[in-house]
Design goal:
With 210 residues, the protein is α+β, with helices and mostly antiparallel strands. It has one domain: Nucleoside Triphosphate Pyrophosphohydrolase. It has three helices and eleven strands; from the N terminus they run E-E-E-E-E-E-E-H-E-E-E-E-H-H.
């Protein structure tokens, strides 16, 4: 069977080839880049959903905190979203491109605003939230490859594998709507159908900012 390629055009001109489960910028290494913080105050960021062979997804526990979240991080001024994703993958959980297979990416930007108490009004340019591009990866290497000590300032000191929809309940409240949207968009690209959507998933009480 010949390769089947899907071209996805996003609102910032970022274009991807999806070929046999891999995503690449069309014009790499001269892929379109994005500003670190845009004119509306949103910082460009990538989020990473890593799935195992059974459809569970990886959550990391923040160093010195009780919170759990997916790996994520900022996009540099001269980085494509895919380049930032692979850099963050290595920095936060110790995985290389050869350890994963890229299954999908979300359409356009997914945004969340920071609660006012987290906005640093004295910093310039002012950042009021994040705009994110999310990637779904399948782990193809042994789970023993996961590491949290590849940088001097690790993001996570523990991790666990959870049901596909569970991160929406685990993450801090102001990120829940973005998590919900990202998981909904990425679910059709899982190798196996995700578990049924739980009753609590769309409840307002799960996301007070929805």
């Amino acid at each position: 069977m010949p390769p089947v390629c899907l071209v996805a055009a996003c609102d910032d001109g970022f274009r991807l080839w999806l070929r046999y489960g891999t995503i690449r910028p069309l014009s790499h290494p001269d892929a379109p880049t994005v500003d670190r913080i845009d004119s509306q105050g949103y910082r460009a960021n990538v989020g990473i959903v890593v799935s195992d062979e059974g459809g569970l997804v990886l959550l990391g526990g923040r160093v010195g905190q009780q919170g759990w979240q997916f790996p994520q991080g900022g996009i540099g001024p001269r980085e494509s979203a895919e380049e930032a994703m692979f850099r963050e993958l290595r920095e936060e959980i110790g995985l290389d491109p050869a350890d994963v297979r890229v299954l999908a990416a979300t359409r356009g930007w997914l945004r969340y605003r920071l609660p006012e108490r987290y906005v640093r009004r004295d910093s310039q340019p002012l950042c009021i939230g994040q705009k994110q591009r999310w990637f779904l990866l399948q782990l193809t290497a042994p789970k023993s490859r996961l590491r949290g000590d590849t940088t001097n300032q690790p993001e996570f000191d523990r991790w666990r594998w959870v049901d596909y929809w569970e991160p929406v309940r685990e993450v801090i409240h102001f990120k829940r709507r973005v998590y919900r949207k990202a998981l909904q968009q990425l679910a059709p690209s899982l190798p196996a159908p995700p578990p049924p959507v739980p009753e609590w998933f769309q409840q307002r009480s799960v996301d007070p900012n929805a």
